[in-house]
Amino acid sequence: MTAKTRPRDEISAALRRAWHEAHVAPLWESPTAHKPGPAGARGHVWRWERLRPLIAGALAVQSPAAVERRVLSLVDPSADASSHAPIARTIAAAIQILLPGEAARPHRHSMNALRFVLEGQGAATVVDGKKCAMAEGDLILTPAWCWHEHVHEGSGPVIWLDVLDVPLHDYLGTSVFEPGPPRDVPPQPADGAFAGANLVPDLGEAAFPHSPVFRYPWPAARAAVAAAPRAPDGARRVRYANPLSGGASMQLLDSCLVELDADRPTVPVRSTSSAVCAVVEGAGTSRIGDDEIAWGPKDIFILPHGNWISHRARGAAARLFMVTDREVFRRLGLLREELAPTDGDQATP
Q1: How many CB atoms lie within 10 A of CB 11?
Q2: Does the structure show a pLDDT above 90 at 38?
Q3: In this model, does residue 1 exceed pLDDT 50?
Q4: pLDDT tens digits for 50-79?
């Protein structure tokens, strides 16, 4: 019998010990070698009715001055909460809170981040010197290496959803953090320069790897999605785009606003990418693989990769904010998206 066909129990203990000491292992004994990866994780919803009291508790426990940012991380429901395991392979999500008169110190980092406002108004995020007002439904970008800080000069708490590509950078070893004060801040064109539809300024050779617009106000996004044509899955969808390229607003995070017609299920879609969703308006259900979750205003839920996913608004139209890691997979040539065949009960474009 040759070494290639020798059974596991005939490999000598001395040889196994030598492999172990050299930090090598026989691939032919691996239980995962040459097999498909695991199926997509299960969906999960963080209900606002449960989150909001916990947020109130956080206000009494910590201040931004003590902890840099007052943040409650959303963690993988299949993991121990103390592990702080992120909710997706490349995406971390959290809830951040700021009270009137508070400020969160400036810093910058290699990770991309965005803020989607869930409650309140009167706060602002300053991004590379540009002050971006924050009101419910607004999207604020803080792209990689942009200086940013938060200030609140209004009344009442302002609460927003944070989404970052931290897990990807942690895996790649590219996570870098730099505290303020801001320095070497690049000049930024005014948002008014991009106010004309289909018209953008000639910025010469200036390179913007991300959108030069940092604030996407809710009224404009809501009007745009209402006017959008149906996508192949039956929903209406608009992208928060970089106006200079028409592509994703940041290099590794892609965001969109989705409008669902009342009681009209979307055609199931499956993707190699994952998404985090925040319910802006309405209520409904999402089928994620074999599971169905119900959601309502301000609920947050995860759409893990590898699952057939469809959505249905209940009683009235609904709008969902979604942020995905599809740009990561597109750039790597690994993005795969499938639309299920339709039947009489599903939406048609």
Answers
A1: 14
A2: no
A3: no
A4: 999 988 888 776 666 655 678 888 988 877
Domain-located, residue 38: no
Q: Is position 346 within any domain?
A: no
When divided into structural domains, the chain yields a total of 1
Helix (H, G, I), strand (E, B) or coil at 57: helix
Cα–Cα distances (Å) from 191 to 76, 99, 244, 297, in that order, read: 37, 27, 12, 30
Residue identified by tokens 């508070």 is 102
Which residue type occupies 96?
Q
> Other C-beta atoms within 10 Å of 270: how many?
16
CB 36 within 8 A of CB 272: no
CA dist 98 and 120 (Å) reads: 10
**Inside any domain, residue 192:** no
> What CATH number is attached to the domain comprising 62?
2.60.120.10
Quote the CA–CA distance of 278 and 280 in Å, as a whole number: 6
CA-CA distance, 146 to 106, in Å (whole number)?
A: 10
pTM above 0.85, yes or no: yes
Peptide bond into 181 cis (omega under 30): yes
* DSSP sequence for 245-296: TSSBSSSS-EEEEEEE-BT-PPPPEEESS-EEEEEEE--EEEEETTEEEEE-
User: Can you give the pLDDT at residue 34?
Assistant: 66
Mean pLDDT lowest among 33-47, 193-207, 310-324? 33-47
- Is pLDDT above 80 for 37? no
**Structure tokens that stand for 341 in this block:** 């065949």
pLDDT-derived band at 131, boundaries 50, 70, 90? very high
Amino acid at position 113, single letter: A
Q: Please check the confidence at residue 159 and state whether its pLDDT lies above 90.
A: yes
Estimate the share of the chain in helix, then strand, then coil, as percent rounded to the nearest 5.
Answer: 20, 35, 50
List CB contacts of 299: < 8 A, sequence separation 6 or more: 45, 46, 47, 48, 278, 279
Quote the pLDDT of residue 202. 85
Is 196 among the domain residues? Answer: no
| Cβ pair 150, 293 in contact under 8 A | no
What is the residue range of 215's domain? 44-182+210-339
Distance of CA 51 to the CA centre of its chain: 18
Measured CA to CA, the distance from residue 293 to residue 281 in angstroms comes to 16
